Amino acid sequence: MTRVAIIQPSYIPWRGTFDIIHSVDVFVFLDDVQYTVRDWRNRNRIKTHQGPSTWLSVPTKGGRDQRIMDVEIDDTQDWRRKHVASLKHSYGRCKFFGEYFPRFSEVLLAGPSKLSELDIELTKLIAGWLSIECRYARSSDLDAQGTKDDRLIDIVQKMGGDAYLSGPAARDYIQPEKFGRAGIALAYQDYAGYPEYSQISAPFDPQVTTLDLLFAVGPEAPDYIWGKRRVRSA
Fold first, then answer.
1. For the segment 46-94, what is each residue's pLDDT rounded down to a tens digit?
2. What is the CA radius of gyration of the chain?
3. CA distances from 150 to 137, 144, 153, 176 (A)
4. What are phi and psi of 181, to 5 degrees?
């Protein structure tokens, strides 16, 4: 069985994204659909020493009337240096900060001018740190046909897949019978059971970027995503 997941690119994603990537054979970045503003495409959260989390947002050009793959980053703003400085201020004293931050900041500072390109590059970087082995693709390279479920099915088939792993929120609108008729097994990712770990301040925020976890626990990070510390309901 070849399992495929299809998700829009996100900026330095949370650990649920990497849980899905780890669970499949092929991960497709859905980059040729409409861009959503003020969403995970161009922002994510980090912890602060004061307690609450704060947003790191990538400024972009244009609005929602464009595909994700076409969105350009607004580099007239000095956001890259500010993100690097914010990460260093929050996490500079973390045990494993020096293990990951130099390479991350190098990629971020010299990163692509297209938002999806940057998202994908950083996602692959973090996946590598988590020792995830997966084949990657972009929907924009596949000339997928149809809309909604039909489009997802076409992408899965083009990638040689016979199983589709969806995010849990899709239960509200996905049509399982279409996947059944196409001979594709349908499953939903379970985000339950991610354990807490020691963050730089309380309260614990489970949805911050995965960098937060890496800086805190280093090579043990997979244990807090899909490994021995994960507790799933029966």
1. 999 999 999 999 999 998 899 999 999 999 999 999 999 999 999 999 9
2. 18
3. 18, 9, 5, 11
4. -65, -30
**What is the reported pLDDT for 63?**
87
Mean pLDDT over 150-167 rounds to 97
* CB contact burial 144-156 (16+ within 10 A = b; e otherwise): beeeebebbbbbb
Q: CA 16 to CA 82: how far, in whole Å?
A: 26
Please state, in angstroms and rounded to a whole number, the distance separating the CA atoms of residues 199 and 177. 43
pTM above 0.85, yes or no: yes
Beta strands at 3-7 and 163-166: parallel, antiparallel or unpaired? parallel
**CB 20 within 8 Å of CB 3:** no
State the first-to-last Cα distance of the chain, in angstroms, to the nearest integer.
Answer: 24
Distance of CA 148 to the CA centre of its chain: 20
- Phi/psi region, residue 45 (left: phi>0; alpha: psi -120 to 50; beta: rest), is beta
